[in-house]
Amino acid sequence: MPPLKAIRAFEATARHLSFSRAADELCVTQSAVSHQVRALEDFLGKKLLVRNGKRISLTVEGDTFQSVVGDCFSRMASVTDHLIGKQKVSLRIMTQTSVASEWLVARLHDFNTAYPDVITRLDTFVMANSFDANDYDVLIGAWPAPEGFVTRKLRDGRWYPVCAPTVYDQIDPHDPASLLDWPLYSTEEGADWTLWMQHQGLRPPATLDIRHYNLALISARAAVDGFGVALSNDLVADRLVRVGDLIPLKQFSYSLPWGQYYVHYRSDRHNQNQTAAFTEWLEAAARA
Question: CA-CA distances (angstroms) from residue 172 to 169, 175, 224, 250, 251?
Fold first, then answer.
């Protein structure tokens, strides 16, 4: 068998794809981690990592080895918790920022109350390529499914215009063309509003004013100020609509092809029962 210390160093490095983050986790120096990984490669006679400056990637052999040792360490952690009487199980959740701040956080207390033995650890990111999916048990958002994850659609997401009450008083709620007199806040370089106009049978006027934001949440927050109209959905605009800051125009809703929200989860880990409980709760909450 290879030295356990070398396997541990490789597992942490492969999981984070970073020597420095692995060193922080293991409370050793970065050079010590690098030395242990090289020792493991020498033992196996195979290259496990490709080093390109500060960037690290797994070779085919490294990916194969990581899939096994990662599962072994996870199982050892689970049985150790059981033997020492540790009752609570952690569930690592990654959610798109807008879904977390405007919808999930307000409801997560309900899950924590129903499942007091599960510790939820919530992180947020905007882009799927900003994090390593293998660090998490559950992913929530409009991201594509990573390899090794099971996918379920949370709900059929319908997108619709939202505006402040002051704007609503100045438009015709029966005529979608009346919205085009206002600045339109877009998160898709205008493609979202182009599809919306096509769905409504409208031609864009020459004076169309499109203003760009990188997040649906920011676009919705901008609409609160009463100077324009945003496109949003129930998961993003929920809280702002409930408190009266925004009025939804659901009569002008449409299905945005890339705007569907999913839950992706791992079913092959030691906390699979807790993961199943969370995903079932999440789907029920989304349906409600």
Answer: 8, 5, 18, 13, 12
Examine the pLDDT at 128 and tell me if it is beyond 60. no
The pLDDT tens digits of the residues spanning 173-220 come to 999 999 999 999 999 899 999 999 999 999 999 999 999 998 888 999
Count Cβ atoms below 10 Å from residue 210 Cβ, excluding itself: 15
61 contacts 46 by C-beta, under 8 angstroms:
yes
* DSSP of 253-271: -B--TT--EEEEE-SSSTT
Cα(149)–Cα(128) distance, rounded to whole angstroms?
A: 14
Chain centre to alpha carbon of residue 28: 30
- Report CA Rg, the chain: 24
45 and 37 Cβ atoms separated by less than 8 Å: no
Q: Pick from 234, 233, 228, 236: which is nearest to 211 by CA? A: 228
Query: Which candidate, 286, 282, 285, 287, places its Cα nearest to that of 93?
Result: 282
Q: Is 139 helix (H, G, I), strand (E, B) or coil?
A: strand
- Residue 60: CB atoms within 10 Å: 10
Element (H, E) at 199: helix 191-200
Global pTM value: 0.61
